[in-house]
Batch of 2 targets.
Target 1
Amino acid sequence: MTGICMQSEQRGQDGTMLAQHFPFTLFPSVVPRTCFQEAVDCMLDFNTLIHKVAHDHNFLENALKNVLEVDEFTQGLWKIYTQVREEGYTQPLSLGLFRNDFMIDVQDPDHVQIKQVEINTIAAGAGSLGSLLVYLHRLTLDMIGKHYDKEEVQDNDASLGAAWGLLKAWELYGRKQTDPGVQSLSLNPGVRVLRRTYLDIYNGASLTEDRRLVVDGDEVAVVYLRAGYAPNDFPTHKEWDARLKLERSMAIKCPSIQYHLAGLKKIQQVISQPGSVEKFIKDPAAVKRIRATFVKQYSLDLGPEGDKGAELGKTHPGMYVLKPQREGGGHNLYGNDIREFLETHQNSTERNAYILMERIFPKAHKNYLVTPGRPSALSDVTSELGIFGVYIGSATEEKINMQCGHMLRTKLLETDEGGLCTGHACLDSPFLVNDEL
Ligand code: ADP
Ligand code: MG
């Protein structure tokens, strides 16, 4: 019994494998404790919300119908979703290892508050590195003689949480132990871990008659996708076929195709509309916790409603971020590029694939960014806080809902984007302080 982890490779232009360290900050960055706590406190609510959205077919279909007219990548995901749904799910459970990303907005100094950037259902990696970085940060603080306690620079159990979620899913699949493998899960060495590309799955994985997933003779219990959120992860039909094969299987998927869809930018824009959260979450306190983190988001669909959003973007481009249905960093438009895009696509359905989001303005602070190939100097930077959540459930039942660990990313003040893998941001740890910013 096995779990598999899909991973994309880092290669140089000549095709050789690249080895370089992950960009990180030299010291932890200051985060107000109250803001950190607010982000933690709403994680279970968001886990439930995303899970419920993912299981509401009409909501997904209505929210995505205009995107599906124009966005080929979303069409590919939707096709898999539709096929699996029509065939009937062989595996009722989904595993979510979500990451909810926030910035601390300081536009109004009297209301410093966390605001959600996005919630990730697939592009939610790097948790394990953050769990280790805290040890380096304690060391660098020791070296400069800066006093801290463990409540200020907290342990980060993001890595443990993800492993625990994978283990629980493995157990829920119905197995308790297996042969020790070459690579295994630290929490339970009986769980073998295989790493496979989509092409490997296309070529070497099969489904039994009752749709058990078999890879190299092993039955797979859990599939953890670490690639598959960018169009270039699917250069040919073979990768799409592999994704479909995984999805049709009895293995528990992280994320399942419906979880993947629920994390799309368009879904998050529709969720932010009046009444949407309330449709899924009945506890008014939970609704309030969720809604308190929202900034306004607008449809850009061709038509009167989208025209209103487009007008806002054109007149005040500096106050918004323009987002396509993409994950992983490097795809958004800012400032004058927003105006230009909206003017060029004034009468085009291309607009349907984008949403407009109010810009969050985080406070600048200082840190050293240690990035491969770049000089490290004390710089003005801003941070983005991610909170990890683990969820396992079916359409009718919640099995596990928990929060575990966090991730801080820090980037130069003048950089708009914040992706780690795209080289825009550095991994960081919070230094929690009681004082106001
Ligand atoms: P991706 O899926 O590419 O990570 P995000 O929505 O997280 O998409 O946007 C990428 C980056 O753009 C974020 O990490 C953040 O730095 C910046 N960003 C996104 N939305 C906003 C916003 N509303 N205000 C300010 N910056 C934002
Ligand atoms: Mg992001």
Target 2
Amino acid sequence: MKFSFSASSIEKAPAGVVRVRLTEEPKGTKRFAREATGEFLEIGGGKVSEVTQRTFIPLVRAIVQTAKREKVKKIALDAAALCFPKMKDVSDEELGSLIAQNMLMANYEFTAYKTKPKDGFREVSEVLVLSASKTMQAGIKKGLTIGEEVNACRTLANTPGSDMTPQSLAKAAKMAVTGLPVTVRTLQVAEMKKLGMGAILAVGRGSDTPPTFTIMEYKGAAGKPIVLAGKGITFDSGGINLKSGDGHEMHMDMSGAASIIHAVALAAKLKTRKHVIGLIPAAENMPGGNALRPHDILTSLSGKTIEVINTDAEGRLVLADALTYAKRFTPSVVIDVATLTGGSLSALGLYASGLLTRDDELATQLLELSETSGDYLWRLPMWDVYEDSVKSTFADMANCVSGGAGRYASATNGGMFLWQFAKELNCPWAHLDIAPRMTSAPGDELSKGAAGEPVRLLYAFIESWKA
Ligand code: BES
Ligand code: ZN
Ligand code: ZN
């Protein structure tokens, strides 16, 4: 999708370009109109006085979705029509960035496995923006880079498990930063064994495709790094505690990892003056003959032993070793991102990821950034009383609660398990349970499949974090 700019008025948009007209009709009104003066896409956004940043995002996306539906390739829009009274605190640059990010996100379709139709895939190829200030134009340029990385993250997550193995995920991390000042190193099984990464190795044991552990480093500044770790389960069958039925879309269980890869790439592309490290523990959770069994006891990289109550609580195991590995970088802050629990979906539905942290300042910062980035978060408790959920009779801890009680507060319990490792870091730490936002939801105005969250939030966090 190409953006170009012009100072002329929208009435003078060149022939063949469809003009966007925002109306005060109810949200969801989408119309293609052919008039004597030209062609128009009419998009209802509700009352102009009521549009907020939250409703602005799907509104901008609806423009592109409608254009795609109508097979419109070139659109023109007036920047002035996208300035709403309730968004007056949003700078011109930020507004431009939001427009570009969200238009690109709405234009995305996962077509890698589809035969190209004769008239091509439906996508908008050109957006002509009229009367955009220089700062808004700069914002649009930045937003395009952000949108590209979000979409690249979606492609990784959408790729089927057969083509997205731990090895391919490691390769994807390298590919994402080719030509950028980012170093990428992948530990293979032999090195992981030497280090004693007993938790991630155990998860990978049941699969024919071995686990990997990838370290990305972007040093845009000196000083203690921001460490980001992402759950990279390239397919989660549940293991011996096999998942039943269909509809789990567990090839996307590496969505956390994909978001870290592209957040690091984004920081490098935008030359952010921060030191960022991305950790990608990747494994496939399969029920092979050598698979991890319920009640096996593992020794994690930290030295702590873990009793496996349920082999389907595997994400926390690979992240445990990643959190311990993070310690060697003496980080200023650690954030992990994971499609960790179905419980976070039960608690929050489809429109917010879970935020689990014991650090109130970090929570406030992340919640604020979630509002402005569009990758929404909602905080869940991490109080001491929940720590009982990781108690084990025979090991230092258990990976989850056994029996029926395991149904309750499982997002918090997952957080409490990770906390057992994060507490050794001696720096602020947060866990984002993105299971609710793994895929797009009705009303998002995005194509079906991976949502690419929380790349925008992670980038905003990297930009704003003061070590
Ligand atoms: N990857 C799943 C969680 C998940 C579910 C992500 C739905 C996205 C959508 C995770 O590994 C898992 O299976 N968690 C278990 C934990 C339980 C055994 C304590 C769950 O949530 O049921
Ligand atoms: Zn699982
Ligand atoms: Zn999983």
